[in-house]
């Protein structure tokens, strides 16, 4: 790692650095007990997973429902490397890979992306990860056609530690700016069904642990588990091999 990369890492939120291990462009967690912060997880290994073991029904997704390839994308709304992967991060040099994956594979009907939002950073950093995961499910239920625009807005709004974005009040304010979403209806949905959504978010997190997903961002593609905000070329190689 060169000097510039090392310097960039230190500008990431201090609580993220303290709570997790920054490895290969990912925030990594203890796979056996994500709530304690003790121990160190091993690096996820490609070839030890299978997309068919992932629950995809009822989860947020983009793309053709019958696309030949499905990607399960595990993320946390408070994870800076997830922001880097989705929309770019000014302190992380790797360009965002997701826009090119969408352009070349999702928009062409070849790939469906299923979003699996975990709560790896709760309760280490408060409840914002869980809150984001709850709103994620509520927005998908009410406004699936506007879901991805909302998701992009969420990651664009992600700020540094102590910046204040990520609690219910700040997400409510953001929702009012996203086209196609009635912020009041989303708030009412969250308030009415928070317990159900929290349970589902925790089930997604438990599923990640069971499958060996212990870092965000992580993508399961076929039998490959790819962790980290990697370059588009890394994903292109795996996808092209599956689509041959």
From TrEMBL:
Ranges of residues in domain Thioredoxin: 22-244
Record Pfam families: Thioredoxin_4
Top-level taxon: Bacteria
GO MF term set: oxidoreductase activity
Keyword Coiled coil annotated: yes
Keyword list, A-Z: Coiled coil, Disulfide bond, Membrane, Oxidoreductase, Redox-active center, Signal, Transmembrane, Transmembrane helix
Keyword Nuclease: no
PROSITE patterns xrefs: THIOREDOXIN_2 (PS51352)
Transmembrane segments annotated in the record for this chain: 12-29
Chain segments annotated as coiled-coil in the UniProt record: 187-214
Family statement drawn from the similarity comment of this UniProt entry: Belongs to the thioredoxin family. DsbA subfamily.
The name this protein goes by in its record: Thioredoxin domain-containing protein
Organism this protein belongs to: Candidatus Kaiserbacteria bacterium RIFCSPHIGHO2_02_FULL_55_17
Classification lineage: Bacteria, Candidatus Kaiseribacteriota
């Amino acid at each position: 790692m060169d000097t510039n990369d090392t310097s960039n890492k230190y500008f990431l939120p201090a609580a993220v650095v303290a709570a997790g291990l920054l490895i290969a462009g990912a925030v990594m967690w203890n796979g056996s007990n994500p709530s304690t912060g003790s121990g160190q997880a091993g690096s996820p290994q490609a070839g030890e997973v299978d997309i068919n073991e992932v629950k995809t029904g009822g989860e947020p997704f983009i793309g053709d429902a019958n696309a030949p390839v499905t990607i399960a994308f595990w993320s946390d709304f408070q994870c800076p490397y997830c922001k880097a992967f989705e929309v770019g991060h000014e302190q992380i040099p790797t360009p965002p890979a997701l826009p090119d994956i969408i352009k070349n594979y999702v928009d062409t009907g070849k790939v469906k992306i299923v979003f699996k939002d975990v709560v790896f950073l709760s309760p280490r950093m408060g409840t914002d990860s869980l809150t984001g995961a709850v709103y994620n499910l509520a927005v998908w239920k009410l406004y699936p056609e506007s879901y991805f625009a909302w998701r992009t807005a969420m990651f664009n709004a992600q700020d540094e530690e102590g910046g204040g974005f990520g609690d219910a009040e700040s997400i409510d304010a953001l929702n009012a700016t996203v086209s196609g979403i009635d912020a009041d209806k989303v708030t009412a949905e969250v308030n009415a069904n928070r317990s159900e959504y929290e349970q589902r978010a925790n089930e997604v997190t438990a599923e990640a642990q069971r499958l060996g997903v212990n870092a965000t961002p992580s993508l399961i593609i076929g039998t490959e588990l790819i962790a980290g905000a990697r370059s588009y070329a890394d994903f292109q190689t795996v996808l092209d091999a599956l689509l041959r």
